[in-house]
Amino acid sequence: MSKFYIDSGKIKKIQECSISADYVFGINEMIYETVRLVDTQPLFLKQHLQNMRDTIDVLLMSCPSNFTYAEISKQISRLLNVNKVYKGGVCKIILYRKSSVFETYTSTELSYALFIQALEHATFSFNTKGIRLALHPSVLLQKPLLYSMYSAHMVVQHKSKQLLQTMGADAIAYFNESADVFHSSHGDVFYIKNKVVYCPSPEINTFRFPLSDFLLQNLSKIDMKYVEQTACTIDSFLQADEVFIVNPLYGVQWVVSCNETTYMCKFSRQIFTLLATVSE
């Protein structure tokens, strides 16, 4: 368990942390990204930070002046050292501001915080047992389309946890206002049909992880192609040969079943091998 975190450039003890995890009803606001650390290197850090800046722009907030790639890289290194995390880990980057639920915001300025946690497995590993994905159209995320997770999304995340228990699944799909699958509680969703990978386009899945982009760009190395779609229906997943989810921490996660439909994992396993070449 990590003992320290960083709040706006200052190292503080975790037990002194005043950033609440419960942002559901607007008492606080936050934007966050989860970054995988391989050894001590944060993967795709520039892209994760850009996602956060793009989200800030949509929400008409102001980015902290010290929220730069150079500064965050330096602070991640400091935090790794004080927490003695030298192998695989995860860094959560948060931009936040506080306000009473009855208070009018007087500033759009945000602060940043960094948290680091060691992971049990230093490298990506393939999930040979598979995960179960539930397709339930009531799990709806409405506009505005953002690029990072935002505190308002936690209402849907809370509902997802309840449905997962009811449906006996590991992950649940997120739907947009057009009733199309675009993301999931576990990460980016993909399906394979006739050796072609299909996925929601960035137009409808603005959350898409940099790791997913990396895999798509390298599919040609294993003689596969991909198609980005602006409409991904439930039927397209249920009629697929394979389904997998890309999670920034665990990589390619093979889906063994969607509702009552089960899948093999031949091509998902091949796509997983591309993670061996991933770098910053």
Q: What can you see in these coordinates?
A:
With 280 residues, the protein is of the alpha+beta class. A hairpin with a 2-residue loop joins β3 (28-38) and β4. The chain has helices at 45-58, 69-83, 154-167, 210-217, 234-238, 266-272; strands spanning 4-7, 10-13, 28-38, 41-42, 89-98, 111-118, 131-134, 149-150, 171-175, 181-184, 188-193, 196-200, 225-229, 242-247, 251-258, 261-262. Strands 7, 9, 10, 11, 12, 13, 14, 15 and 16 form a nine-stranded mixed β-sheet that branches. The protein folds into two domains: 4-118, D-amino Acid Aminotransferase, Chain A, domain 1 (2-Layer Sandwich), CATH 3.30.470; 131-277, D-amino Acid Aminotransferase, subunit A, domain 2 (D-amino Acid Aminotransferase, Chain A, domain 2, Alpha-Beta Barrel). The longest helix is centred in the N-terminal third of the chain and has 15 residues, at 69-83. It has six helices and 16 strands.
